[in-house]
Specification:
With 442 residues, the chain is an alpha+beta fold. The chain contains 21 helices and 13 strands. Strand 2 and strand 3 form a beta hairpin. The protein starts with a helix and ends in a 10-residue tail after the last helix.
């Protein structure tokens, strides 16, 4: 029995404690209101303590808990400043760190996946992991022909942990929604559940990576490492060296931050047209800036399949929002099941303007400056539990084929705000999002 399987009961207990803790703090908050504290003071105190508990739990778990934590971490720039630096540091850790598995366990997985003579395929293999994430970890090695390689090894029992954690977290989507402004937590978790098998299938991920590597081979701006060997629980690919995007966020130059935001957005939204696939896991742990300035991209387990490019209504929806044609936009959203008919009358023009602000504000300028303060205003204040953005999100229903598109859109915006970057977002979107430039206002 693996460590991750043995710990399932402990994980479930920690996850189950989250709503109980929230309920207890809500009751305490009611008592504080009776003593004269303001609504804003009580909400801020409640949200801060709940956030600390949530991310402490997510940060110590593998499986689905950490996967959700990574997805939430891309929107950390939207968190109000009063929650403080510790909250931001906890989110950053969720992007690329997890407790490593023992070398003996790694060797056992490699025996099963690559054969007991797997060592003959490598000139050297480092037992210390170079990186660890939600369902696997990466080791640096040298292939038999002398090429430096990255060996991605899936945790034993990751399948059970991922499925169990996501099922439990699905029941906590309301709580997570309140802590992550601008994020549709229920749609995000439902999407993660729907593609659980894809996340666990390293053979499928290797095929995705091969498709991206072929499409971007020789590109002057992007690097996707080529796959050398693959098995259901192991991927061996070229090692790429560079500066992690998380490092650029904290200490990069203005030029580096601007270039990173530009390259990230261009890669994400050109890939459906160039590859027929959308890279669906935009968080800083998956991006590198190479020494020669090229943008390196990792992790192709989560992809959206769009053989004809992005869904055509994407541009139409963004164009109507950009042009403030809210009545027409509401009709389109109802028609395509973004708003269920019974909720159509509850979603106003002001609701749509507030909810879509992070998506359309950058379309009004040739070069947009993404900042934390802007994103906090655009995404709504997390401390306001009765805010318009949160209420509107409960009336929206992202169809399955659009969930990843809009999550990646928001992810690019969130990371650009972390970078405090200025980027030609509008030009990139007009080039790669079908129907957006075609509907420019007269």
């Amino acid at each position: 029995m693996s460590d991750i399987t043995r710990g399932r009961g402990r994980r479930n207990a920690k996850l189950a404690a989250l709503p109980l803790g929230m309920a207890g703090r809500a009751a305490a908050g009611f008592g504080k209101r009776l003593t004269g504290m303001s609504k804003d003071e009580v909400n801020a105190d409640l949200m801060e303590k709940t956030a600390e508990q949530l991310f402490e739990v997510l940060g110590t778990l593998k499986g689905g808990a950490m996967k959700v934590g990574q997805a939430l971490s891309i929107m950390e720039a939207a968190i109000p400043e009063e929650f403080g630096e510790p909250f931001r540091e906890a989110l950053t850790k969720l992007q690329a760190e997890a407790p490593p598995m023992a070398a003996a366990t790694v060797h056992k997985v490699l025996d099963q996946q690559l054969g007991t003579r797997w060592r003959e395929r490598f000139s050297s293999f480092d037992d210390e992991p170079a990186a660890s994430a939600s369902i696997g970890q990466v080791h640096r090695a040298v292939w038999s022909d002398g090429r430096p390689v990255a060996v991605k090894v899936q945790y034993p029992g990751a399948d059970h942990a991922l499925k169990a954690d996501l099922k439990t977290l699905g029941r906590l989507s309301g709580l997570i929604q309140k802590l992550s402004p601008g994020t549709d937590a229920k749609a995000m978790i439902d999407e993660l559940i729907d593609r659980t098998e894809d996340e666990l299938d390293y053979l499928g991920e290797a095929e995705n990576q091969r498709a991206f590597a072929a499409a971007f081979d020789g590109d002057p701006d992007f690097v996707v490492p080529k796959v050398i060997a693959s098995a259901p629980r192991v991927i061996v690919s070229e090692w790429i060296e560079g500066t992690r995007l998380s490092k650029i966020i904290t200490s990069g130059t203005r030029e580096q931050r601007n270039a990173a935001a530009t390259h990230m957005t261009a890669f994400e939204f050109s890939s459906p047209a160039r590859v027929g696939l959308l890279h669906g896991d935009p968080h800083p742990g998956n991006f590198f800036v190479m020494d020669d300035g090229r943008f390196g991209v990792l992790d192709f387990g989560a992809v959206g399949r769009y053989p004809d490019g992005l869904p055509p209504e994407t541009g139409h929806i963004l164009a109507l929002a950009r042009d403030k044609q809210y009545d027409a936009l509401r009709d389109v959203l109802v028609q395509h099941n973004f708003i269920r008919p019974e909720f159509a009358g509850k979603v106003t023009a002001a609701d749509l303007a507030s909810y879509l602000k992070p998506y359309v504000d950058p379309l009004y300028e040739d070069s947009f400056h993404f900042t934390r303060k802007w994103l906090q205003r655009a995404a709504g204040q997390a401390t306001d539990l009765s805010g318009d953005v949160y209420k509107t999100s409960r009336h929206l229903n992202l169809p399955a084929e659009y969930v990843m598109v809009f999550r990646v859109l928001l992810g690019c915006v969130g990371i650009a705000a972390q970078l405090d970057a200025e980027a030609p977002y509008r030009a990139i979107m007009y080039r790669w999002v079908p129907g957006l430039e075609d509907e420019l206002p007269a």
